[in-house]
User: Fold these one by one.
Assistant:
Number 1:
Amino acid sequence: MNFSISLVRGGVLALALTTFGAAAHAAGSVGWLNPANGASFPVGTMTMPDGQANASGVVGGGLDLVLALDGSGSMGAFVNLPDGSSVRRDILQQQAANALVNSLPAGSNVGVVEFQSSGFVRQTLTPIPDAGVTSAINAIVASGGTDIRDGIVTADGELDANGRAGTSKQILLISDGGSTQSVAVAAAAAALADGYTVNTVGFPGAANSTLAAVATAGGGTFVNFSNNPQDIVDIFGGNSGGVLVGVDGVEITDPDGNTFAGTVDALGNFKVPAYNLKLGANTWTAVATFSDQTTATSSLTLFGTTNGGGGNPTAPIPLPASGLLLGLALAGFGVARRRRG
């Protein structure tokens, strides 16, 4: 896939698991989030480690992200795609937002704000995955005006009300329009003063100078998709590097010595394929390359033990939702059998 993206970064260069106040020019970092380094599991346990890279140099701590999505009438316009087909801007926005949410690691909370002639909360900050977040994103369709300021103010208020202590608190605003720049910039500066980073994405028709100024005032990053809106879904979903956090890519080496490019979303989160643990130490190494071409390295070691074996304290690996439901069903079946017995 070939694409060209214009980036304007503010003073913090961050939309991921970062801490407000991190130095703007800190060296980049990469780290593993789950499972905990040094944990042990029975041999054969399937693991899918995930991690995060960030040019700001800070990873970990959890994420509270509010998506401020444009519901103005102009979002009903069509975007022509390279294959000759077309898609409405609001549908493309839905696809991109869902791809981003689906790529986030465990421990992330997401809220959804819609802004038209005014802003309002469609979904309060909620642990993901959650059907309510998806429904809120998909409910945003074109109608009304464009009040970027009120979108930021509403997102700021949601973080005030429901943000968790100790997390990175972020606002991601997508728009194809513009509004009075001075008040939008003032709202972004106020959010930054509250400890929240404001990042912006421009669709075709957007007032890119306003969105860039908002991101700069909010200490975040502006990404211009005006000329290539079709790429936003792939980029937000993890197919083109952490464009919002200064990450070009992450190279992974698995315990068998195989080296491959990790799947990295726009926020710098990466995942590796499923791997069945072998007896003893199983080590992955991640090498992140940042937009300034510097690199950072981090390793994760998990121990495979025989049943009943000792080793390090065991940290549970989250089951997929379907696996969790199946486990609960089987557990209920066992209880029922014991009662009948």
Note: The longest strand covers residues 280-290.
Number 2:
Amino acid sequence: MRAMAVTAYGRPLVPVDLAEPQVPAGYALLQVVTCGVCFSDVKTARGHMPYSADLPLPHVPGHEIFGRVLRTEPPGLLEEGTLGTVFHYWPCGRCASCRRGDETLCTQLVGWTGFTHHGGFRERIAVPVDRLIRVPPSIDPIHAAPLSCALGTAYRSVVVRGRVRAGTSAAIVGLGGIGIHAAQIARAAGARVVGFDVHGPTLEKARELGLDARLADEEAAADAVAAAGGEGLDVVLDTVGRADTLALALRLVREGGRLVGVGYGPTSALEVPTPRFVLGELELVGSRYAHRDDLERAIALVASGQVRPVVGMVRPLEAVNDVLEALELGAVVGRAVLEVEEGAAG
């Protein structure tokens, strides 16, 4: 079975021939049709994740998996040909986090697809049937690839953790693979949205989608604060997690507002003056991936046409190194997608 794997950190992924996956009871065997590539895959390939030192190599990344059911064990759990995206957290169901319903905070994950366990940069994968979220056939395979991470993460950060509602003023710092979808979701929720980025083609694409997209600088930040009555915005999402983007997010959020962190780095840190935090009643909220119901709602927004997945690069599986390089250079608008099954792009 064709796959692309990390064999040494910092070196290109190489083709490997994997054995066909075993299909335990309660699992479905999927034909991987497409797989999105996000910056977490870059960090995994370069050894920049918290688990990197303990990750057995070779390792197959890829967590934005869109596939088609080939069979289930036992037969009949899902109809053959069912289309779905893989929810990439496979929780234990027993720890304190799981018992209170926080699957993404599970402390004893059975599987973390594409991160600590083999992912979708391969032809076939076996997944628990309850981790497969159905995708309607009206969503084409290229746009279906980013649904799991880019759209699911964006939805949870905006609607659940950010609590963006009709009439909310919201800013999205970083209009990359998550941010450009978070801005659309905030708009669909009825918010007044402004987005910030430094990449010209990304700003152009956001404006094509009808979004208020601005160059991330002090002048634009001051204008956005002034437009919000001089107080700042209700909710600000930082999808990047660097010192400069966090500083911009703090500049934009009003007193009593909410700053939602989505992006992160191995060494970046959020520094907030305690008077601003305490006396300004500033809410600092982290947002990690999505719950399954979040992902279902994000898919519904795409199916209804209220949110349009943005895919700026499509390559065959074997060209994954070109995609990782483009992501490192910041040259991808929206998400990048790998065609794993030949002809997936139609």
Note: The chain has eleven helices and 17 strands.
Number 3:
Amino acid sequence: MATKLTRRHFVELCAGSTAALGLSLFKHPEFERLFADALSEVPVIWFQGSGCNGCSVSALNSFPVTIQDLLLSEVVSGQHVSLRFHNTVMAAQGDLAMSALYDTETGPFALVVEGGVPLKDGGFYCEVGEKDGHGIPMAETIERLGRKAIATIALGTCASSGGISASPPNPGEVVGIAEFYKQKGITTPVINVPGCPPHPDWFVGTLAQVLIGGAESVKVDKDLRPTAFYGKLIHDQCPRRGQFANGKFATNFGDPDCLYELGCKGPITHADCNDRLWNNKTRWCIEAGAPCIGCAELAFPAGLGPIHEPIDLTADQTLDKAAIGLASAAVLTTAVIAATRGKSGSSAH
């Protein structure tokens, strides 16, 4: 008896056969386009700018929802993502790659931007593609795409606020996507998914929500971050929170006490790292004995001070004042001890 082959099963069969043969769908754009039509596609343009590709590495390591699930299966019922352009992972190059970009922007699409936008000298310091023998500035492309996209996800802290790329003296005059849109009068919704890099779940979950209910369905905070992922303070979820409240602070890495004096930015950082865990749900920074560096905040890195120096908590109205007093006293005590030792050392010489 013949078995009916549904269009969905055909998609899975083709994807499985391609994987078994060790082939990449990105190397066969026409074939991929034909069988992917079995599901309702959501075209995505993923454009990289002034950054390090770390956000792509993180997102491509999504688990348990893998990047294969994201691109070939249903992210939400009846829909899957069709990644049409990605500077790094697409096999196409040159005119073929740019054609994929131009073809996609003729219809509805979601825009993912990774990396900041350099504005210095007309955007000369980040160019992708050529036209009439000249490089095309990222700023020019993002302005065009931004006006057409149904929504923009700024992936990573560089895309959200400039991040490391915009750190002083910021020679490239790099800005984040929201600021760039503001300067250009672009009204397309922007959702920031900061992190250096961001957790894969933050990106996949945000994209899924956009597919389900549109960009307006994503509840965001004042920094345009989804509150579903950035609604909690690292400090309030920290297993060493009790040590902070009791004024017990680590002075060396490896000590079991609060890492505040070693530069932990948990008291001002909003993210759910302890729930998500990293490296295939293995552990997170503080569990591994490292202080939170605050990479999910738009002020990261320059606005948070040196990574391994404590931050000033006296201006934060959300924290326990008694705990802040203990922390401040501990920092002062440490400084006095260090100064005393320095003087003793000088006298010995």
Note: The first helix runs from residue 7 to 20.
Number 4:
Amino acid sequence: MKGDAVRVAIVGGGIAGTLLAWRTVRAPGGAVVDLFTDGTGGRADASRVSGGLVRGFEPTVAATGPAAESLAEIRGSDILREWSGYRETGALYVLPAGADAREPAEVVDAYLPGSAEVVGRDGVIGAFPFRTLPAGSVAVVERHAGHISPHRLRTAALRAAAGAGVTVHEAPVGEVTRDPAVCTADGRTLRYDRVVVAAGAWTPKLLARSRLPVAGLRTKHIQYSLCETPLEGLGPFVDENSGLYGRPHEDGGFLLGLPSDRWGVDPDAMAPDQALARRVAESARRVFGVPVAVGRTVASCDCYHDPAGLELRSLGPGLHTFTGGSGGAAKTVVAASRKAAAALLA
């Protein structure tokens, strides 16, 4: 390693921080990389409980590009397929009347030829177990969408990063400073050329504790419920008409959820919203016309940014964040981490 190599600290050992560390240490020119895996002293990272759906299609062209690029890279890499446990499942995305599905679908096909097909309301009802949909609804059926294990991907990337020379620190981080530096909870102050806060839902909390601007980042409650319901023929799906989203669970049953309206939540104090779980069951009964029994409900939270997108954002010279997608990094983190590493060392 060259003596003048850039010294980089990445605070956060979830899927975003770990992949960024792996990308950065392997980037042309080399860098000395420290990864702080217990970035805020919070509970276990969200990678372990993430749903892990990877699809290319999103309702806008801007959001579709990074997602489709990431999925194409996973499918095209033996290493990433193995690390992530990728398996093709297909996916369905239902949009309300008036939505333009064709342009984003064309972006998906540019990265994943033959993957995306736009179908009308009647085609969806005929092929999938929807009892009804509003007139004018349109959907995208995505053949190459699939499922990964974010925790498995994070674990493999962490092992590879350490093997490539990344120094892994398990000490909790107390704060970061504009120098830039990382101050650990055990009293050390470590200075770097670049510091990146990639602590997911804990990023706003760490920035506030460091007396730094939160910079448009907000936490939001998310949850899903494991339901017993006969939804034969339905794989991972999103229905923007009802708000429902879900996928079959590996152990049987179906994971179902609805968007929450709870913003600014504390990631260290998450608990299931039972009223939201009841609304999930009621909505699923109405949309699919079948019995739905709610079992276990898992609550978590994620970090959002407006405008959305997982990307490197500057807080000042040498200080950055890498978080704030549209809820969950799994869909875009492979491509986003590659671009962020290049930008970090430019």
Note: Residues 1-52+149-216+306-346 form a domain with the FAD/NAD(P)-binding domain fold (CATH 3.50.50.60).
